[in-house]
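User: Working on a comparison across species. This one is Ferrous-iron efflux pump FieF from Aquimixticola soesokkakensis. Can you predict its structure so I can line it up against the others?
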Amino acid sequence: MTSPSPLHGKLNLTAGLASVAVAFTLVIAKLWALYVTGSLAVGASLADSGLDLMISLAGLAAISYAARPPDEDHAYGHTSAEDLTALGQSFFILISGIAIIYTAIGRYADPTPPELSAEAAGIAVMVLSIALTLVLITFQRSVAKRTGNKVVAADSLHYVGDLIPNIGAIVSLIAAKMFGFDFIDSLVAIGAALLMISGALKIGKTALDALMDRKAPDAEIEGIAAITANFDGVLGFHDLKTRTAGSRTFVTLHIELDGRQSLYEAHEIGADLRRAIMEAYPNADVIIHKDVWFPTPKPDETDAPSA
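Assistant: Here's the predicted structure for Ferrous-iron efflux pump FieF from Aquimixticola soesokkakensis:
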């Protein structure tokens, strides 16, 4: 059983640390912005950043744990920790979104909603939030593309969703300052919360699928099948099965080999095929079973009948 690449592990940990650092910075900045503006849209963005910090800390712990190599009790490694963390992330995001909608509806229905203030300061903080979020998303996507880590990928998707609430908060603050449309603040908060809930459901489904041993994506399965079918020395294959756990894809398949060749030759074909699949899909863990197959002998290979 192979272990995740040490380089991939370092990249994932770096992405996790960067996420925690950005989330912590934004929580502090938005706390101040909420205090000086009283904007519920800023409050929604603050709640989202607070969840980001919690999720990023949990994600960092999951990435660290998932990077541990297989051991006696976990022969397939620890990558399912990524899926458990992602499932927990989706639950907390969902609850937060519902709470924000409830608060926003209450403020919208209030005949005398509180007026917003210090809009310029709030806008400055939101601009800072957008800039930091864009830098983080770019880095996370680069890492997720190289390592296939689900926690990093989910965190990146969540931060993409954060851009909308931040932009919405700016719109609501500008509308309040220039036109006195304070009610837009509640509408933006509701829209941001709905985006959070949608993202939570998507993240949760992906994590649950992995925990239920769902197969790898069809494109990956088709790619593995194509490599195997066209591999030199492989006469056929069957029982190609896959399952995902965190950023890993576990593959098992049976290949049919010429039974007339030596055991060494058969072993080399299987080992070379395994390497080829893992080169194409670096996060795959491949087990190959070799089945002996004897081709139908040609007429000149059969013994002539005796007189």
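For your comparison, note: Strands lie at 236-245, 248-258, 284-293.

User: Helpful, thanks.
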